[in-house]
Amino acid sequence: MRIYKMTATFGKLEQQTLTLEPGLNIITAPNEWGKSTWCGFLAAMLYGLDTRAKSTKTTLADKERFAPWSGSPMAGRIDLNWKGRDITIQRQTKGRVPLGEFKAYETASGLPVPELTAANCGSLLLGVEQSVFRRAGFIRLSDLPVTQDEALRRRLNALVTTGDESGAADRLADNLRDLKNRCRYKRTGLLPQLEQQREALEGKLEELGSLDQQMKKLNMRLGELKSWLSQLRNHQLALDRSAAEADAARVAEAREELERAEDRLAVLEAACASLPSLEETEQKIRELKGLRDEWNALQMELQMLPRPPLPPAKREPFGDLSLEQGAEMVRSDQETYSKLRRSKDDVLSLFLGAVALIGAVVLLVIRQYPAAGITAGAGLLALILALGKKRAKDLELKKLESKYGSPDAAHWADGLRSYSEELRLYNQAVKEYRESQGDVEVRQMVLRKRRESTCGDQEPEALLEFWQQTAAKRISLQDARREAQRCGKTLQTLTAMAKPLGQAAGVDELTFTQEETTRLTAECMAEQQRLQTRKGQYEGRMEALGDRKRLQGELLEVNRRIQDLEKTYAALTLAQEALVKAREELQRRFAPRISQRGGQFLEAMTGGRYRQLTIGADFSLLTGADTEQTIRDALWRSDGTVDQLYLALRLAVAEELTPDAPLILDDALARFDDDRMAAAVGLLKDMSKSKQVILFTCQGRESSVCH
């Protein structure tokens, strides 16, 4: 197989292409350029990506290590030549599976290559399993030492221990192991399968017995349910007939109620035939109520108005006199009072009468004049007259003082002035009262006219009561009409819902209500349905299990085959033990072919210093220099020499096991000195004549030596 070019979206590679030539390809690039990524890409394209591997604390799984840095889906393409055919293989991400979709087709025509699949692509193109290719044809500095691998061991054993490339011994061992595995290997061998079959047959027979018992119980329970359901249905018939009779009674009652409602409606329609309509009646009622409310509001407003002012109380001594008359009376009385107070006649008369009386008494006593008695009588009379006149004057003064309530005539006019002010205030209050009464009286007059036009001679309350009675009759008519309609609908509904009288039930001893009967019937039918379903499942399961006699016959045959296979397994074990002993004897022989070819490569790379190379059964290396008397383990050599030892072994193994596969080296010569590096490049150049060699390196030495 020869690779033309590779295109990858893989790790740090984003749609990058690497073109290769036949023979030796030396690709020089700095660290972190992507050399190891290209190596990983080639292995993943040929053998696929292990998506089951998980990362650990020290290593990353390839699906995470090589996930595209750009976030794009992982994808790739390789154009190659295989057996003279130009072929393209492609892998790309499918869903969440990196490189999960595989295609292989002829590059020129696009026709598919059906023999190549995602599973066998690497094995078919390179001729070896992935683990063998990684240890024989895929050489990296980090894993130059060859570790044990079952697939590699088998191929090397065929070459180096027996010298037989046909692999007959391994095939015999494989055949014996395969035969034993066919007899007994975990759960896939014939014996485990037969034992499972025996166990299944025994389980089926046991299950059939259990199902028979279950079927008997089911049939018994179904019979009980059938009888119980028959009783419930008979009871339901009785309940239905009773309910139908109750429905008929309700229909008859509803019909009677409808007739009563229609009779009442007819009476009310006759009574309301001559009455105004309800709209007119309501309009009249609203009008009368509005008039009443306005009248009451006006009366309340009148009651809330202030009361008319009261005239001031009459003042004595003015009485009903006008102010002018009162003033004139006060002036005349003041003049009279003043004159009386100034008059001295009564005092003089009193004095003269008293003098005359005293003189006459003296004369009469002393002189005893007869005329003195007359003089004394005249003096006494004058005194009496003077006293009477003074008394009359005093009475007049007291009368005037009593009349005005004060002896000071200057204040007699004060009462008149106070009374005059009270009259003025009273007249002003009367004027204001009459002004406030004016608007209310006008409104009261207007309202009276409206009342007269609306009510005529009738009282508003009586007229309102009449219209309210009319409205009540109209409303009663409407209610009666609605009641008749309701009764009609009720009758119609009850008639539609009424159950017909069904057939008479048989003897019914159950006493359940309708709800209980419905529930019990539903529960009975549900249980019956469940049991029928279960019975069907049991019958289906019994049919699936098969006939008991046939199963018993199969069990006998399986037991016989198990006995035969156990004998065969014992014989194969004996044969395998004999072959192992023979192989152990053969493995004691050295691997001359690989050792010889590896020694040639080592001698060429070391300039003839090392010619002896011995390979242990575990691929450990022993070697000795031409100046050394003994051979030593690789642990005794320098790091560069150890790399050369294992490279020699790798090249020998690759030459034998992967003759058609490309040889991939990733910085494998990094620790070689210049001379041994040049020798190694020469060996690679020679090998590139028969196979494609790809050498990735971070140094320029290899390219300079090659040119």
Notes on the structure:
This protein is α/β, with parallel strands linked by helices and 707 residues long. Among the domains are: 126 residues, P-loop containing nucleotide triphosphate hydrolases (Rossmann fold, 3-Layer(aba) Sandwich); 134 residues, P-loop containing nucleotide triphosphate hydrolases (Rossmann fold, 3-Layer(aba) Sandwich); 114 residues. It has 19 helices and twelve strands. The strands form three sheets. The protein has a five-stranded antiparallel β-sheet with strand order 2-1-4-5-6. α7 runs antiparallel to α13, α7 packs antiparallel against α14 and α7 crosses α15.
Short key terms for the protein model shown above:
19 helices, single chain, Rossmann fold, five-stranded antiparallel β-sheet, 707 residues, alpha/beta
Structural class: alpha/beta
Q: Gyration radius, to the nearest Å?
A: 74 Å
Q: Report mean pLDDT, rounded to a whole number.
A: 80
Distance between the termini: 25 Å
Percentage of β-strand residues: 5-15%
How many strand elements?
A: 12
The total of helices stands at: 19
The fourth-level CATH homologous superfamily of the domain at 147-162 and 590-707 is P-loop containing nucleotide triphosphate hydrolases
In spatial order, strands of the major sheet run: 2-1-4-5-6
Oligomer: single chain
